[in-house]
Amino acid sequence: MMDHGQRVLTTLRTAPGLVPVGQDFPYRSWSRCVEEYGLEPGRCGALPLVGHREINVAREALEDKLIFAYEEIDFLYSIVGRIGYCVTLTNAEGVTVAERADRSSRYYSDTERPGSVWSERHAGTNGVGTCLRDATVTSVYQDEHFFEDFIEMSCAAMPLFAPDGALWAALNITVRNPKLQRETHAIALEVVRKSAERLSEAIFRRTYANRTVLKLWKPDGQPCLLAVDADHAVVGADAAARQLLSLPKTDFSPFSLWRLFARDPSAIKDRSGPSLPLELIRLDGSPLRGYAYGPLREPAPTTPRTRPTPAPAPEAAEAAPVTLDQWAGTEPRLKRNVDILRRLSRTGLPILVLGETGVGKDTLARAYHTESPRAAQPFVALNCAAMPETLIESELFGYAGGAFTGARKEGSAGRFVQAHGGTLFLDEIGDMPLHLQTRLLRVLESGEVAPLGSGKIQRVDVQVIAATNQKLEQRIAQGAFRADLYYRLAGVVINVPSLRERADKEAVIDDCIARTAGRLGIRVSPAARRILLQHCWPGNLRELYLVVSRATSLAEGKMIESHDLLLAPSVMPVEAPLAAAPLTDAGERRPAGMRARVDEAERAAILDNIEACRGDIAAAARNLGMSRATLYRRLKAHGITRRG
């Protein structure tokens, strides 16, 4: 049987007679690998790996785009991570600057870690490198890779374009699973496509926050964005709009919108609401439909509503901020939580939000800030799970110029100082490394921050909101989370129920349908709606919005049918939601059976991680979210001895 390397070279020699017209992938990329880069398909060698200094430089160059990217990476991973994919973001040179993955998974490839360089020149045909080279969506399934070393992997990458049309990054998912079905990978590609569209739109709308943004749909269903000023002059266009409307690929001077469309000033007049339907007629007579979003404005004081609307999806990119009432919907427990938060809004007590992934913890934090006395001050967020451990400390507490290799000359203020006077949201606090928990506790107790490499102490005044999907009681019992930090964060504890538990679940689902499918005139069949109501929604609101958005794209005609949902029957039991059970002291006054189950689960987790890390205790400790010293103590407590 011909091996992969021979097949690649044989195909390239005979490709002109074998490759169908218009289907030149991956042959065009394979040809570049051989003729332009001088690569051999049977010889890969180690991929280039840059150090922390180069990673920091690459991240600094991306500036505030990473703030949006970290949130979208986290959301994307909550969906595709369940079937083994990891999520990465690379810059335009192919350097991996962010990763979200389960490194203990059998499907993980350590070549995806931050610092790895996936340019086509070095890695051959692959999702990231070929996507960046061709500046187009790229899916590489198993033996479509150039190098034989990668034929068990499948990856899908989307190019990310800045508001000025420049290519700045690639959003990618990868899995090492030789049994992965091509159909499954094709669906995962569509999930990445939607994430990339959301991320690009969020950056575009923030860039043109003081302009009206027109979101129009191309005939193929791809959205494109235009930014228009008060005089109807086009001042910005994303890459899709530039292609559709034949605009320059780089910067252009503002010009009248009516050079592109039949004059209709009333179409975009008085766009003060979050979004309003829009139809513009091109000069050739063809219509473009979509929505117009008014300029972002400072929110007016919010008053409680008598008929609150159901909660929007956590990732929904609305121009107007979500209110606490919108977040709560008609769910009695959430309405009670909102009432408590409003009464305590002037106390400055820290808030701890507990709930499964996707229930809207981040949305609650932003809504609370918007309605709090600190609304005019900054809202600053840090995802403790999405950021590498080596960078959390400098990101959170700041650093002086030259404090470490790769540090900026002017230093960095850090998130605490950036949030001074406002709100600091610490998402996934349960995943914060133990040694950083100690320093965080000192800052919370003293109100003082000392940047790395600086003896200068700065006093800060921040409203701290922390959130996690972890069971902190178990993390404390395992020695992975400090009990004193828990009590310092738990000034107010808010438990957010899962979607399947909400009393207003039906209203939330109907609202999701209206926001996604309804705005395009697409309805949901009774059978499909029944499936939506019966599904257990392990991914909560995020999963709900993804499923409905995906079905909207798959639907033929104006009706979403059951098969468009791509949902398997909900037959697996779902883990019970987080409870607000009080923590006990070091004695852990819990039933012996529960303690035994926790110990057994911890022992198994430790052994699995040590095996996955091939005996590397430091790596296993990082995976478990604890220090090496703590891991050694837990090894001793469980009677585990190291061999060899």
Main features:
644 residues; alpha/beta; six-stranded antiparallel beta sheet; 15% strand
Protein architecture, described:
With 644 residues, this protein is an alpha/beta fold. Helices cover 37% and strands 15% of the residues. Mean pLDDT is 80; it is low at 17-22, 297-320 and 570-595.
- Rounded mean pLDDT is 80
Characterize the main sheet.
6 strands, antiparallel
Report strand order across the widest sheet: 9-8-7-6-11-10
pLDDT < 50 stretches: 17-22, 297-320, 570-595
Record the SSE blueprint.
Elements: H1 4-18, H2 27-35, H3 52-62, H4 65-80, E1 86-91, E2 96-100, H5 120-123, H6 127-134, E3 138-141, E4 153-161, E5 167-176, H7 182-207, E6 212-217, E7 223-228, E8 233-237, H8 239-244, E9 255-256, E10 276-281, E11 287-293, H9 324-328, H10 332-343, E12 351-354, H11 361-371, E13 379-383, H12 389-397, H13 415-418, E14 423-427, H14 434-446, E15 448-449, E16 458-459, E17 463-468, H15 472-477, H16 483-489, E18 492-495, H17 505-516, E19 523-524, H18 526-534, H19 540-554, E20 559-560, H20 592-612, H21 617-624, H22 628-637
Parallel strand pairs: 12-17, 12-18, 13-14, 14-17, 19-20
Antiparallel strand pairs: 1-2, 1-5, 3-4, 4-5, 6-7, 6-11, 7-8, 8-9, 10-11, 15-16
Helix pairs in contact: 4-7, 17-19, 20-21, 21-22
Task: Give a brief rundown of this model.
The chain is of the alpha/beta class and 644 residues long. The protein is 37% helix and 15% strand. The strands form five sheets. A six-stranded antiparallel β-sheet has the order 9-8-7-6-11-10. A five-stranded antiparallel β-sheet has the order 2-1-5-4-3, sandwiched between helices.
